Amino acid sequence: MHPHLLSVDSLSRDHVDHLLRVAARMEPIAQRRKVTRVLEGAVLGNLFFEASTRTRVSFNAAFCRLGGSVCDTTGFTFSSMAKGESLYDTSRVMSGYCDAIVMRHPEQGSVAEFAAATHVPVINGGDGPGEHPSQALLDLYTIDKEFTRLGKSLADAHILLTGDLKYGRTVHSLIKLLSLYAPMRLTLVAPPGLEMPSHLVDLVSDRGHRVEQRDTLASDFRDLDVVYTTRIQKERFTAEMSEGFSLSRDFTVDRVFLDQRCGRDTIVMHPLPRDSRPDANDLDVDLNGDPRLAIFRQTDNGIPVRMAIFATLLEVESLIERDLRDVRWFVPAKFGVDDAAF
Ligand code: ASP
Ligand code: CP
Fold this sequence. Notes:
With 342 residues, the protein is an alpha/beta fold. The protein is built from ten helices and eleven strands.
């Protein structure tokens, strides 16, 4: 694997398959049945200059579960970038303190700029509307796990990506990752002005996938395997775009859409957070408790996948099984009150 994880462009199909296999080997640790110390002594620098719950905490937890320690900073205000320090200087300084760095930043390309100034592995935790490669890997891992349970395969799968496909960085990384696999059918549904960038549509078509773009969910999707819905990224809108924008309820994935338009085993994914404010019209909470709603299985999968990324970048993946011990504390069931068994 490339020394940094900045974009899924650096991953071949073999790299991705290898990472997903390493992630599967991390499950006993991620599920708190086993403990390892393979990264004992290593320090992760977690630099988040944009809001985050999942990515920041799960990268942190994944590094700790491998036996390492984490230094966390959040926001510009408490970083010396607020005093005008460049990404270059910050990168060089952090490399003296840490063995790996995860960074999220509001500007596309900024994490790559940061990585260019260091030999310490840097992982892009989201760069503006650019990419979010670890999210795409955990999304693919989730699809693979759900498909295995349902007896399906990626070949010929029908996947619907909907919501803000223009600024949603998770779908930018995911569509590229999916394109490495056997030809499938991709339906892209976005409100006008928020369509998938055309270079990504061209890329997946050129790789032999069937891509269809629409501006409405009002259609029959009975053969759909996955609906992957996303939040409108209003924080990336220009003032002009924000003015008067509201997402029509017609773009909401809810129980009626799933029951009336999709198949009985269509799974629902979302990178989260879902915007639960009343007029956001994001993924509806009326699907909570429905086994087709995979969003929390998806967030749980962030741990083994991020552990696999660290183990691979820091070259300890061959040591994992040698170092395992049983956990000694009481591990409560991690299912939430709304999680459905399947
Ligand atoms: N959490 C994801 C991201 O940071 C998706 C989102 O914020 O809507 O890209
Ligand atoms: N999916 C995701 O990146 O979530 P956060 O923004 O909470 O990190």
